[in-house]
Amino acid sequence: MAQVTVEETQKFLPILRITLGWMFFSAFVRRTINVPAKLNPSSSAYVGGKLITFLPHAWGPIKPILVSVLQNPGMLYDFIIMFTALEAIFGLLMILGLLTRLSGLVLAGLAWGIGLAAGWLGSTCVDEWQIAAMEGAAAFMFVFTGSRWLSVDYFLAKKWKGIKIGKYYIPLW
Amino acid sequence: MNGKVTAIIAILAMLFATGVTFGLYEINFHGFTHLTNYSKTPAYSLAGTRLYSNGTLFLQISRTAGPDTYGGFIVLVQVLYPNGSVFYQWTGQQLGMLPPSDIKNEFPLHPSKPIKIGNYGVGILVPLGQNSTIILQIPHPVPPGTYIVRVWDADGQDSAYGMKFEITVEVTS
After folding, report:
1. Tens-place pLDDT, residues A27-79
2. Where are the beta strands (DSSP E) in B42-161?
3. What is the percentage of chain A residues whose pLDDT exceeds 70?
4. Interface A-B: count of C-beta contacts within 8 A
5. pLDDT confidence of residue A62
6. For residue A71, is it within any domain?
7. Does the beta carbon of B9 lie under 8 angstroms from any beta carbon of chain A?
8. What is the mean pLDDT of each run of 10 residues along chain B (173 residues)?
9. Do you find a cis peptide bond into B72, omega within 30 degrees of 0?
10. What band does A2 get if pLDDT is binned at 50, 70 and 90?
11. What is the ipTM of this complex?
12. CA of B116 to nearest chain A CA: how many angstroms apart?
């Protein structure tokens, strides 16, 4: 078994990793366990309605996409389910430290994507922009650092170095 | 990977994440030009409003700013002569008693609707992002000419963020 060296910095990454993952995974928990009505299209709590509130100052290029999704309830439902599933899966993977680099990439995409639609909202402060920018940058960092301590990736890295393409190893963990 | 390549990748990643953060700040809050938070107070656009000589007003109203979870409430709709004097107006008492079928919403979720408490009409609720056509009837013909249609929010304002909640309409014979 190959020796895995863990740099000191790696040992402190879980401080951020678990909170970051929970930010996404807890969205799934809220919509399925705490308030299931959030995923019920005939409920006033349905999160699909949230997308309407994004519209007025959403970034120009994505506004027409939002409008067409909102005018098609079936498409809206599929979008909500898909987004919630991505948050659940990759939020959990980030917490576990399993495929941390890939999870970081997906979560950065989700955070920054939301930032382009809802980033202008924030009645207390510049709230949604802060969330999108911070979560996006944090998740993006994990694409490059991975997380090799208190993580499933730690054990995977012991067994496999990554995928070898030609003479390069693509590090998956 | 040697140290030089790693440093270049690290700097590029930093520049990218910082660019996204700054970009979202400018797109969403105009943070580097004229800082604006559209969540603070309600605003409305009346673009698309039409007034006909038979007295029918198609009030096209979209809520473009303000908190995403509450309001806004239209409590006065005015048709004005160009000099600002009132030609006809509907108070909250009348607006709140409108049949809901006189309000057509672009999006089925979060609809605009008349609000009443018993026989006391309050006004019309217009949720953030909703775009509604409110059909109102002046009980007499409208002479051809130019008119201003103006609405007032329950906070007593008829403008916000430097934009007035009004539009100039032409009535032709």
Report:
1. 999 999 999 999 999 999 999 999 999 999 999 999 999 999 999 999 999 99
2. 43-45, 50-51, 56-65, 73-80, 86-91, 103-105, 113-117, 120-125, 131-137, 145-153, 159-160
3. 98
4. 91
5. 94
6. yes
7. yes
8. 86 98 98 96 98 98 96 97 98 98 96 97 98 98 98 97 97 90
9. yes
10. low
11. 0.91
12. 19
For residue B42, give the chain A residue with the closest CA: A123
- Pick the residue from chain A with its C-alpha nearest to B65: A56
| Contact between A119 and B24 using a beta-carbon 8 Å cutoff | yes
> Which of B8, B12, B24 to mutate to test binding with chain A, by most A CBs within 10 Å of its CB?
B24
- Return d(Cα B165, Cα B60) in angstroms, integer: 11
* Nearest C-alpha in A relative to B1: A168
- All residues of chain A having their beta carbon less than 8 Å from the beta carbon of residue B129 are 52-56
User: Which residues of chain A are within 8 Å of residue B10 when distances are taken between CB atoms?
Assistant: 144
The predicted structure's pLDDT at residue B1: 58
Closest-CA distance, A172 to chain B, in angstroms, reads 15
Interchain proximity B21–A137, CB inside 8 Å: yes
CB contact under 8 A, B28 and A115: yes
Domain count, chain A: 1
The answer to whether residue A84 sits within a structural domain is yes
The CATH architecture assigned to B43-171 reads: Sandwich (2.60)
Q: For chain B, give every domain's residue range.
A: 1-36, 43-171
| Cβ pair A50:B68 closer than 8 A | yes
Q: Does residue A129 contact residue B24 with C-beta atoms inside 8 Å?
A: yes
Can you tell me the distance from the alpha carbon of B32 to that of B39, in angstroms, rounded to the nearest whole number? 18
Please judge whether B64 and A56 are an interchain contact, meaning their C-beta atoms are less than 8 angstroms apart. Answer: yes
The SS3 of residue A78 is helix
Indicate whether A165 belongs to any domain: yes
> Residue A173: which residues within 8 A CB-CB, separation 6 or more?
A99, A100, A101, A146, A148, A151, A153, A154, A156, A157, A162
pTM of the predicted protein model: 0.92
Query: Which amino acid, residue A102?
Result: L
Q: Chain-wide mean pLDDT for chain A?
A: 93
Averaged over A134-140, what is the pLDDT? Answer: 98
